[in-house]
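Hi R.,

As promised on Friday, here is the backbone we talked about, encoded as structure tokens. Could you run it through your design pipeline when you get a chance and send me back a sequence?
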């Protein structure tokens, strides 16, 4: 259905945790913790291609050349506001990552997203970037965020979401076919208000308890 740039998680823990998140009766506290946990599990997959080198270690038995991360520079970029919920899950696995932030608002007439805030590490153009947001619905926000990171010179960009609609995946692939997309699940589609069906509702409201 999708090409090799789309990575849909098949791990039972991801599926199980997403099901709890989809339940409208799940508390804000549990929802927030699950966003972070699922974020960490998807990060595990999204970092599978990190380059390794070797270094010498002395075990209690002998000296040996052993694998270690090559120390490639990495940045995680949450789309405000719901993307913030995913940051600590990424940082738990890649603690040296820098964090950039992108804020987006939607023009009420054109419905097009616009970047109103973009604060990045100075050397972001030299870093591998993972943009994080729980939801990929129409794809407008993700496309605009990727465009902004490319404008800043970033060349190796990944997108990580918890739940995606096929429409959002298609939109990202149309404008940014070079970007790998990592999704916890791909749902049926969008309703007339642009919400993912069955989805999990408004991710930002559920993370921050604003509804
Ligand atoms: C949500 C979500 C994405 C966007 C997805 O954010 O976190 O950023 O919608 O929709 P799209 O794919 O159609 O662009 P929202 O605009 O609700 O803001 P919030 O993070 O402040 O809740
Ligand atoms: N944004 C959300 O938070 N949820 C959706 O289902 C779609 C967009």
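Update: got your reply. Pasting your designed sequence below so it's all in one thread:
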């Amino acid at each position: 259905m999708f090409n090799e740039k789309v990575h849909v998680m098949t791990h039972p823990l991801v599926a199980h945790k997403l099901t709890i998140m989809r339940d409208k009766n799940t508390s804000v506290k549990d929802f927030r913790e699950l966003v972070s946990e699922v974020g960490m599990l998807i990060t595990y997959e999204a970092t599978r291609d990190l380059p390794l080198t070797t270094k010498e270690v002395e075990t209690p038995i002998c000296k040996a050349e052993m694998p270690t991360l090559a120390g490639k520079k990495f940045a995680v970029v949450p789309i405000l506001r719901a993307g913030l919920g995913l940051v600590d899950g990424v940082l738990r696995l890649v603690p040296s990552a820098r964090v950039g932030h992108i804020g987006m608002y939607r023009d009420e007439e054109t419905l097009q997203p616009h970047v109103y805030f973009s604060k990045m590490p100075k050397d972001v153009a030299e870093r591998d970037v993972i943009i994080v947001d729980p939801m990929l619905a129409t794809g407008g926000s993700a496309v605009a965020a990727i465009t902004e990171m490319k404008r800043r010179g970033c060349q190796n960009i990944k997108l990580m979401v918890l739940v995606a609609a096929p429409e959002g995946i298609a939109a990202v692939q149309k404008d940014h076919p070079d970007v790998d997309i990592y999704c916890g699940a791909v749902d049926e589609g969008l309703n007339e208000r642009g919400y993912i069906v069955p989805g999990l509702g408004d991710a930002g409201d559920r993370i921050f308890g604003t509804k």
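One thing I noticed while checking it: The longest strand covers residues 157-164.

Thanks again,
M.
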